[in-house]
């Protein structure tokens, strides 16, 4: 039986005691940690880490929330997870320039309150939600401990993009020191390659690499992180910093699954007295002659005219736009700019046609719409201009006045203006 002369008073001391208990009792590591924490006078290991951390360095609690909505499984489910992360700086200060500083791992989050970030969109399953939680939490801790932000300097991005394919690389993200401008690549492959791998590639590119004893960000504890940079000083500093992130900073245990419609109110939100800002949700119904469609949590709905255009007019304007988009710049004056605008109109009108006439578009009709068989383009800029004006007239006839129609007409008019300049020369 493990006996103590003096109960441990540090996290490291509790961990050493846990190892001794595990060796003697043969119990799981987590259970040994709990037992060691109780022997040290705490309720459990989580209580110990929080109590000891509060007694030493200043700690700021940040909250991370992710929703999921799983409609495809045999047993559909939805819900919310919220976890705590312990930082050495306030979350609002860490993300003063917005979640974009965390790159891909935070770009889909918003700062809902000074101490709370929330994912704008829904994860597709509980497992996916857990992965987003881990990535966001570990990204916050990485930024907090190192001071690095996602790479943003043009010259650094160009250097990274110019590197030849990195051997065995996976899940690469680019970071830089906002003060010095030094850059760093974080590579997180699933399988740890053999020692000395990439040696020749690193030498050829004037780069250095270290493998910190750290869980990484992409798939913490399952992928193997490597740091790559031309600066050895930066690598040494970042390696020491990520290896020094205390265990108590990370989210503890498996979060409780809460109702999808529940809303987390953080301490800072409650203290502000201001109502919680809701996530962007899909719009429905009709407004000013336009009908909302599509959208999802965090994804804005689109709008189309509430009153449909006849299938006859769709089969009139469709071939015109199709021929315009098959016309060349040399003979017909259809530049890339003109093509882009006309193709955007074509794509949107095709979407509307299928929504307006569900079940009414046969294969024969579809061939007469917006993406039929290959055709020859218009022969002259004058013919192109006449065709654009004809397409405009069909839109004016087919749809009543509303913002969605006005947006398409603006694109058509922009294309027509370019052609008028060419014709008038």
TrEMBL record:
InterPro entries: DUF5623. It comes from the Bacteria. This is DUF5623 domain-containing protein. Residues 304-414 form the DUF5623 domain.
